[in-house]
Design brief:
The chain is mostly beta strands. Helices cover 12% and strands 33% of the residues. The chain has a domain at 28-143: Deoxyuridine 5'-Triphosphate Nucleotidohydrolase, Chain A, CATH 2.70.40.10. It has helices at residues 10-23, 91-97; strands at 28-31, 42-43, 51-54, 61-63, 68-78, 83-88, 99-101, 106-108, 115-122, 128-130, 135-143.
Amino acid sequence: MTPQKGGGFGPLMDYAEKEQKDLSIELRVHRLPGAEDVPPPRYMSEGASGMDLCSATDHTITLKPGDVALVPTGIRIELPPGYEAQIRPRSGLAAKHGLTVVNAPGTIDSDYRGEVKVILGNIGREPVEITRGMRIAQMVLQQVVRAEIVECDDLNETPRGAGGFGHTGQ
């Protein structure tokens, strides 16, 4: 297919672009004083589901194997009601250095207005340095379903029943 005016690839791409636009929400981002040099959250490719978050640490943090650190991002966010932000590891950092988000996925609720911070842990074999502006995690926005809790005397039975880990033979 040949790109058409506006960057699309004909009706299929125009439909996909419209679908994506219809699914978008507004994420309000406030940079904290002193973090003007830190890149804001951003999608690194057209099809990325997560926005990269960058470190706003004032000094290099060296995470030795087994260490955990709370790393600031220099931003606060405002999510629409009914949404959460999930903080997840970046796959490249995890694969190359053993750097992960300890509470993955971390959850930022729509009513939280404090600084976004990432709990990073080094499960690798070598120390990892976290520097200012380094892309440290990704943030994925998700809709939230809230349950109505109904207490009951019994639950419907299933073939699996109470079978736990390994019950299905996997």
